[in-house]
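It is worth pausing here to work through a concrete case rather than discussing structure prediction in the abstract. The textbook approach is simple: state the sequence, then state the predicted structure, then interpret. We follow exactly that order.
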Amino acid sequence: MSKKDPKQLRKQMAPYEKSNTKNSVRQVINTLVPFFALWFLAYQSLSVSYFLTLALTIIAAGFLVRIFIIFHDCCHGSFFKNRRANRILGTITGVLTLCPFEQWRRSHSIHHATSSNLNKRGTGDVWVMTVDEYVAASPLQRLGYRLYRNPFVMFVLGPIYIFLILYRFNGKNARSKERINTYITNASIVAIAGLLCWAIGWQAFLLIQGPIFLISGSLGIWLFYVQHQFEDSYYESQEEWDYVKAALEGSSYYKLPKVLQWLTGNIGFHHVHHLSPRIPNYYLEEVHNQYKPLQEAQTITISTSLRSLKFRLWDEESKKFIGFKDLKTLNNAKGYKHAN
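Step two, the predicted structure:
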């Protein structure tokens, strides 16, 4: 079996596209219970040492990332067999992760349907410019893109903007169900935050929830970013774009230590997930290990993934990501001017 035989591959993966209620309930328990316990311990530790509090919030942030993976599976309808159960749990975990369920489900579905398609960028994905687009852009547009791609902006300011501001508003084309879900999510967030501030004080709340939010938000954006932004990724125009290639070549296998793999809900097997979003997160590793074509996906580790920070532009000629510094070489070769 090969990558050129997608129908056979998808057919053999079909048995895994069904959730297991026991596994799902077990994951809810071993994720939500420790998170709330860590939050409570972090509050108790404020009277002992804030360094201890920070240590507990770092661990809690890892569990919040795991909660987001549950939310993510609910958005794909893969966590439970029942659609209503997915919607209810997705809304609850969406409150905890500050993500409106219906809004995120729609944009993420578009991401899966258009991932690596150069003609359909802009919804639910990371902003990617091609070399030619960057060269043709105005100085102001290039500055905006450079700021967007700056690690501090993307991974520190990004979570604040995306999770606290952007997700609080509905899009122009949002339907009534999506709008209502966003309102419910926003109201629930305000109510829970207000209740905690009343119960323990706003200072204690911010000292605990602040680090949890920033760390988990940065990790979430990093995971999303790094699993599509690697040197030999896959991007094609609509005419050449292929769903299977986009999944197997445009998504990476992020090989993480077992503890981090567990906390991130196996999302490192991103190529498997993109090929079949209906597979629950707890089956992704098994599917990857069982089918050889999936094992041929681009593998990155923590150390090699750090190189993705220098990849800023997609070069359609070489079919690779390049950095801004590489533009100098291209400028000389193609005769571009004022592109840096």
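Step three, interpretation. The radius of gyration is 21 Å. The first strand starts at residue 129 and ends at 130.
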